[in-house]
Amino acid sequence: MDRKIQTLKRFRIVRMILSLSRVRAVKLLVPLAVIALVCWEGQHELSQIHLGTIVHELQQVPGSAVMQMLGMALLAVAVMSTYDYLIRAHFRLKISLWSTFRYAWIANTFNNLIGFAGLAGVGLRTMLYRKSGVPISVLTPAIVFLSPLMITGLSILSWANICGLLPAKELLQEHHWLVFAVWGTAIYLPFFILVQRSALYARWMNSGRGRTPWGTVAASLSTSLLEWAFAGITFWIIASHLLDGVHFVAIFSIFTIAAIAGILSMAPGGIGAFDLIALLGLTQLGISTDKAMAVLVIYRLFYYIIPWLIGLVLAALEMGLQGRRGVRE
After folding, report:
1. Is the pTM of this model over 0.70?
2. In a domain, 206, yes or no
3. Distance CA 53, CA 45 (A)
4. Nearest residue to 151 via CA among 259, 234, 72
5. Is residue 22 part of a domain?
6. Using CB atoms within 10 A as the burial measure, which of 4, 93, 213, 317 is most buried?
7. Predicted confidence (pLDDT) per residue in 250-299, tens digit
8. Which stretches are transmembrane (predicted)?
9. Could you tell me if residue 288 is inside a domain?
């Protein structure tokens, strides 16, 4: 009898493990499918990349242009701190403006580079805010409030593409699956607004204070739109310095479609999917593969790597300051 019970227990454990593995498999299936599809469609462009030519293109960039590109990239990353100022105001967090900016920079730059489906940003925000005295009962709804709104700006840009304000017809015609990606991202916007204004969301997130005000919803959408707009402008400024005769709307449209592919891939910073779709779009404009790749290399360096290094220094200083406070106490 004991053996039968043990066998049943083991069988249940096996079934639980199998069910968990299926859930993980489903979560991995979509991003892997997106990355595989993008790689398959971009294999021609990838075969034409020459590292030596890319290095040569980068060496031709004047110092003044480098400073302008870097300055814009750092400004774009700084704009992302508006997310933290939003939750600071909405949840009435008792943290100074400077501390909020530091925490935002650390969390956002680590999340951009490392990702883990947003877990890097969530983990760092939780740790930093907790050590600043924010109770977990306040912090948990604040983090949950923040997570779903980060792609709403990209959803707005998707509607701009659908309405013809940010056209990318050639890219969408040649790669039909991107049309579904654009529509899927666009549909997220009304869904987000409905959830934010729902009574159930109000009871759980707003602690009985009523439905989320339209002003807060508008601020959330504006914050996310600012993030993606500044990232796109950074991409355009880099492209305008390295490429001849490129138009803002054309480059920004390519950035939008590439960013959507990057989000669907769930890779850190959309690496792989974003780069290949951007590469495909730029080459459709008649730009050589090497020059297009040079744009992507500088964008990755200035928007991801350098801000992350600054975030690393800020994180080290933050840990040092908190360690000193602990010793004093």
Report:
1. yes
2. yes
3. 14
4. 259
5. no
6. 93
7. 999 999 999 999 888 766 555 678 888 999 999 999 998 888 988 998 99
8. 65-83, 103-124, 136-157, 177-195, 216-239, 245-264, 271-289, 301-321
9. yes
